Amino acid sequence: MVVGEKQNLNENEEVAAIDETVEEVEETVSEIEQLTKELEETQDRYLRVQAELANIQKRNAKERQDAAKYRSQVLANELLPVVDNLERALEIEVEDEKALNLKKGVEMVYNSFVEALKSEGIEVINPVNEPFDPNFHMSIQVQALEEGQEADTVVSVVQKGYSLKDRVLRPAMVIVAQ
Amino acid sequence: MVVGEKQNLNENEEVAAIDETVEEVEETVSEIEQLTKELEETQDRYLRVQAELANIQKRNAKERQDAAKYRSQVLANELLPVVDNLERALEIEVEDEKALNLKKGVEMVYNSFVEALKSEGIEVINPVNEPFDPNFHMSIQVQALEEGQEADTVVSVVQKGYSLKDRVLRPAMVIVAQ
């Protein structure tokens, strides 16, 4: 082997070594880029699922609050005809003492019934002589305005309405003067 | 500059270059390690918050279900004394026609009241002649066993109890034969 050849070989080896190093560096750079990309994506996913979690908790708190606020709505709706019928029964006039006792008892029941509903935020809508309000009243008949009456006044409540907090369970059925 | 010095300088430069490369490689390795660690930690955090999200959604669904299931409990508890008083009023005996009409009306109200409660899963506990069950009955008096009676039988219900689905709102107050 001549000197020139050896040098040539050495140079080739060096070039090969440099090529290998360049390849390794490229691989390393690509690995770092890949890792950085994956890390950013995972961080992004993490932040998004965390935000989702916060939203869900907020929404659930609101739902829980609403569910508690209006929890009595279904039972109240079932009970409104019961209260109506109790009122109707109390319109029956009686005379003898035992019957008056019964009526007095039923009146007390009626009052405690209304109180029990009130304690859960269920209130009577009974707007006699009040201005007609379509949010809470349903006009089922119109009557000619008499002297001294304001227009759009409720002159008679045919069936009482009921509200549950800020919701109307049933509007009052009314006769309006116009 | 002598040849030896120049060679020495070259060697020094090479050593410095090698040192620098070693340092760079070490830094790169450490960077990759750091990135890998951060990626693993972030992935771990992501998985944990995702699991937490799944748990919270499951728990919320259960809470919503329970809230719906027992939604009428508060109003029902308020209404039990009303039903009691209605029953008590109906024990008053009357004779004349108008009073009988009133009583009939109130009986219908009572029945529709009990039906309205039932539609929300509220049931009467009235265990006359049934075996005493401490889960649903409260013994307020014990009576000597009479002939033909089984021990631990409810002989009389002093106050009816009520249940809401699988919950007891109020146990029945009973007299038990022993």
UniProtKB/TrEMBL annotation, chains A, B:
Example GO biological process term?
Answer: protein folding
| Location(s), subcellular | Cytoplasm
Give any GO molecular function from the UniProt entry.
Answer: protein homodimerization activity
Supply the InterPro entries for this chain.
GrpE, GrpE_CC, GrpE_head
Q: What GO cellular component term, any one, is given?
A: cytoplasm
Q: Which SUPFAM superfamilies match?
A: Coiled-coil domain of nucleotide exchange factor GrpE, Head domain of nucleotide exchange factor GrpE
Q: Which residues form a coiled coil?
A: 8-103
Domain of life from the UniProt record? Bacteria
Keywords assigned by UniProt, alphabetized: Chaperone, Coiled coil, Cytoplasm, Stress response
Q: How does it assemble?
A: Homodimer.
Q: Which PANTHER family match?
A: GRPE PROTEIN, GRPE PROTEIN HOMOLOG, MITOCHONDRIAL
The text of the family note is: Belongs to the GrpE family.
Q: What does this protein do?
A: Participates actively in the response to hyperosmotic and heat shock by preventing the aggregation of stress-denatured proteins, in association with DnaK and GrpE. It is the nucleotide exchange factor for DnaK and may function as a thermosensor. Unfolded proteins bind initially to DnaJ; upon interaction with the DnaJ-bound protein, DnaK hydrolyzes its bound ATP, resulting in the formation of a stable complex. GrpE releases ADP from DnaK; ATP binding to DnaK triggers the release of the substrate protein, thus completing the reaction cycle.
Q: This chain belongs to which protein, by name?
A: Protein GrpE
Organism, scientific name: Jeotgalibaca ciconiae
Lineage of origin = Bacteria, Bacillati, Bacillota, Bacilli, Lactobacillales
Q: Which gene encodes it?
A: grpE
